[in-house]
Every structure is written in structure tokens, then in C-alpha cells.
Amino acid sequence: MTFVVDSSVAVAWCFAEERTPATAALLDRVTISGATAPSLWPLEVLNALLVAEKRKRVDFARRHELIKELQSLPITLDTETAAQAWGATNRLAGQHRLTIYDAAYLELAQRLDLPLATLDADLRDAANALGVPLLGAPEDIA
Predict the structure, then answer these.
(1) 1.10.287.110, 3.40.50.1010, 3.90.1170.50, 3.30.70.1120: which CATH number matches 4-135?
(2) Taking 90 as the threshold, does the pLDDT of residue 137 lie above it?
(3) Is the pTM of this model over 0.90?
(4) Which of 119, 86, 115, 120 is nearest to 100 (CA)?
């Protein structure tokens, strides 16, 4: 595992209009070296794809193709996400005005001492404030 990936990056992998060279590079990196995510990651990604279908961005068949593609990626789900929610995650959310969901990604990156891949501006600001290395923006391509 080389970094923590959030749902914003995974959703960008699914839609050409959201994909950037930086997110494409992250997909390559995941395919080769793997990544990790909080246990809520599949729920967030699946919800985003369901909303995309409801908004007619994808049809049923394409949504299920994308689900299979994402599910096949070597992304390890953290087993401590729920336990951390009551303490560290909740503190991070309050201190940085994040949703609990976003704070879960930040908490995991801090706990595992890994860079965080996100496109979410508020989450990036919080990570910067805490010195957590970031991936995902065009300037992050290494």
C-alpha cells in the first residue's frame, strides 16, 4: 500500500470529464502497488455511482462495469475505521470542520503515515495544516 485513496479520486477514475493526468497516474500506481482506504470507501463510491446513474451520467450496465473495475483494484480496506471514529476521527472533523467521512481518510493517512489522495479542497486544506502529504492535484504528479 502506497497511499490512502478517497472517494473523490475513485469517482474521477470513472468519468472521463473528471479524469486528469494526476488521477490517471494514481490509478496506475494503485494497479501496481495498491492503496488503502477507510472501510467506508466502498459505500461512498457506490453511492456516487448510484447518484450518477440517477442523474443519467451512466446507465445500469455501465455502473456495474465500473463497480467491477473498482472492486478489482488492490485497495485494502482499513479494519479500524469504526473504532477510530469515536476518538481521533471525531476530533479531526471538529478541529478542521470536515465531515466525519472526510476526517476518516485524514485519520487513516495520519495513523499509517501515508500520503492522502483526494480532490476535496477542504480535506486537502486540513491535510496541509497537519503536514500530511497529498496526491491527486495536477501539481502532485511525481
Answers:
(1) 3.40.50.1010
(2) no
(3) yes
(4) 86
